[in-house]
């Protein structure tokens, strides 16, 4: 009798703790549900992250524009006789104005390049080089994702950054590296000027400056023939700017100042 009672109790205990057998379709369904929940969570997180990034980028742009149009800088521009340049900035930043001179994300590159220029003017070569190299890395990412319509603008900016790196290398006495950078910058300028951007005064002047800087380096190296060729190339580009200014085909060319040295 004791054995039967003990057996019955054991059977009841096992029955209470035995997991119920689920239909075969339950586990795959639960797995799919968990996967869908994970994907939905990731999509929500990603959308929230993109929204926050867009909001932060908008705040940065508004802050930068506020600094640009702040009373201190505006007063200096007017005192320096640059009211026309100020008027152009106001027109271009008006809502609905054409944005032909801009590509998404380019402001970050410009910030790095101008920061590098300031460091170079201060004689901080290492910091200037770091700024320019970071600008190039940012341009690599922008170029890979930018539409075809923005490629020429980004290539012109790449030419400016590489030319700045060439000048920094020249300042540091790294002649071989400077030559490589100048060669690369001039290739980019040639491609840019042969395209749709080729008639723009600013690109023409910046390309001319690259030729002048290269010419100065070649004079230091004693390569006077190539230095003369670079100086002549710069003069031809400057002549194109003056020609455009006088024939009235480019109003903005009138504001361009070029120092022939």
Quick rundown:
The protein is an all-alpha fold and 261 residues long. The protein contains ten helices and no strands. It is extended, with a radius of gyration of 32 Å.
List the helices and strands and how they pair.
Blueprint: H1 2-17, H2 26-68, H3 71-79, H4 83-92, H5 106-121, H6 125-145, H7 151-171, H8 175-193, H9 201-221, H10 224-247
Question: How would you describe this protein?
Answer:
By secondary structure, the protein is mainly α. The protein has ten helices and no strands. The protein has helices at residues 2-17, 26-68, 71-79, 83-92, 106-121, 125-145, 151-171, 175-193, 201-221, 224-247. The protein is extended and about 90 Å long. The termini are far apart.
Q: What's the helical proportion of residues?
A: over 70%
Biggest sheet overview: none
Quaternary assembly: single chain
The sequence of SSEs as H and E is HHHHHHHHHH
Q: In one word, what is the shape? A: extended
Ends distance: 118 Å
Given helix and strand content, the structural type is mainly alpha
Key traits:
261 residues; mainly alpha; 10 helices; extended
């Amino acid at each position: 009798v004791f054995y039967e009672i003990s057996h019955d109790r054991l059977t009841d205990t096992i029955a209470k703790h035995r997991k119920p057998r689920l239909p075969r379709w339950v586990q795959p369904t639960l797995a799919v549900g968990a996967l869908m929940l994970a994907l939905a969570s990731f999509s929500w997180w990603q959308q929230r992250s993109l929204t926050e990034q867009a909001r932060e980028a908008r705040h940065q742009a508004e802050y930068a524009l506020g600094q640009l149009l702040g009373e201190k800088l505006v007063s200096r521009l007017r005192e320096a006789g640059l009211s026309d340049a100020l008027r152009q900035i106001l027109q271009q930043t008006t809502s609905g104005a054409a944005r032909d001179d801009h590509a998404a994300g380019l402001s970050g590159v410009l910030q790095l390049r101008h920061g590098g220029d300031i460091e170079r003017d201060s004689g901080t070569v290492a910091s200037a080089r770091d700024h320019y190299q970071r600008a190039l890395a940012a341009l690599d990412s922008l170029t890979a994702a930018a539409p075809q319509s923005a490629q020429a603008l980004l290539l012109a900016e790449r030419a400016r950054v590489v030319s700045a790196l060439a000048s920094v290398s020249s300042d540091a006495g790294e002649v071989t590296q400077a030559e490589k950078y100048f060669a690369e910058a001039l290739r980019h300028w040639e491609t840019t000027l042969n395209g749709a951007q080729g008639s723009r005064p600013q690109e023409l002047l910046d390309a001319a400056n690259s030729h002048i800087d290269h010419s100065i380096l070649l004079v230091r190296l004693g390569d006077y023939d190539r230095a003369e060729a670079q100086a002549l190339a710069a003069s031809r580009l400057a002549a194109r700017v003056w020609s455009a200014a006088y024939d009235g085909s480019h109003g903005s060319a009138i504001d361009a100042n070029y120092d022939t040295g």
